[in-house]
């Protein structure tokens, strides 16, 4: 399948938006939305292959060349720090990477006075860099589940997490304090694939660019 183009996409809303976007440039991958446990889909007619992977694994599959292209949130790319080409902001999947803390703490807190703080997050690399640039020492606790739980049970006073509407934070008594980054989904490309399959990949990039 050396002449096929392989795309890695995570499940969920990103997959739905990706399928809709590809349809606009004549790439039919509706099968990816079917109710199946399949992880690899092949369209022999269009010489396309699709891999359904965890969002956090998309950059790894693309960096190592198992996939030529990938679609993933900018937050994942910032955390993974992989050597990839990132040609397009696809403009969907908007959310914010935020610092948050309990409402009762925020009413009297001054972020400018932060010195040595403890933060629970799924994004330790991004968090450490952000606070290092501000000259603030942080003790990082890496979590994989619901980050909002950490302040509720005393694991940490503050968290760094993705926020869409902010409703989950409110329901758990947390307030948004600072925005680290605004996040959207990006198209990423394996650097070697861009050379070996330049014509096909460039055509996909140019097509997508006209519809975003």
Automatic annotation (TrEMBL):
Pathway: Amino-acid biosynthesis; L-histidine biosynthesis; L-histidine from 5-phospho-alpha-D-ribose 1-diphosphate: step 1/9. It catalyses: 1-(5-phospho-beta-D-ribosyl)-ATP + diphosphate = 5-phospho-alpha-D-ribose 1-diphosphate + ATP. It holds the Pfam family HisG. InterPro entries: ATP_PRibTrfase_cat (IPR013820), ATP_PRibTrfase_CS (IPR018198), ATP_PRibTrfase_HisG (IPR001348), ATP_PRibTrfase_HisG_short (IPR024893). It is found in: Cytoplasm. GO terms for biological process: L-histidine biosynthetic process. GO terms for cellular component: cytoplasm. The keyword ATP-binding applies. Its main location: cytoplasm. Its EC number is 2.4.2.17. Gene3D superfamilies: Periplasmic binding protein-like II. CDD domains: PBP2_HisGs (cd13595). It is an enzyme of class 2 (transferase). Belongs to the ATP phosphoribosyltransferase family. Short subfamily. Catalyzes the condensation of ATP and 5-phosphoribose 1-diphosphate to form N'-(5'-phosphoribosyl)-ATP (PR-ATP). Has a crucial role in the pathway because the rate of histidine biosynthesis seems to be controlled primarily by regulation of HisG enzymatic activity. Heteromultimer composed of HisG and HisZ subunits. This is ATP phosphoribosyltransferase. It comes from Geomonas terrae.
């Amino acid at each position: 399948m050396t002449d096929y183009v392989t795309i890695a996409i995570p499940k969920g809303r990103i997959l739905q938006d990706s399928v809709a976007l590809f349809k606009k440039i004549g790439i039919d991958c509706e099968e990816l939305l079917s109710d199946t446990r399949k992880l690899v889909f092949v369209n022999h007619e269009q010489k396309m292959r699709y891999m359904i992977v965890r969002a956090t694994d998309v950059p790894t599959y693309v960096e190592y060349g198992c996939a030529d292209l990938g679609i993933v949130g900018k937050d994942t790319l910032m955390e993974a720090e992989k050597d990839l080409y990132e040609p397009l902001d696809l403009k969907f999947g908007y959310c914010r990477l935020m610092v948050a803390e309990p409402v009762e703490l925020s009413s009297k807190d001054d972020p400018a006075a932060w010195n040595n703080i403890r933060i629970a997050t799924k994004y330790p690399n991004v968090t450490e860099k952000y606070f290092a640039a501000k000259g603030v020492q942080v003790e990082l606790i890496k979590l994989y589940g619901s980050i909002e739980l950490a302040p509720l049970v005393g694991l940490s006073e503050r968290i760094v997490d993705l926020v869409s509407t902010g409703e989950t934070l409110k329901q758990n008594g947390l307030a948004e304090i600072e925005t680290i980054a605004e996040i959207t989904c990006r198209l990423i490309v394996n650097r070697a694939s861009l050379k070996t399959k330049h014509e096909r990949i460039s055509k996909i990039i140019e097509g997508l660019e006209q519809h975003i």
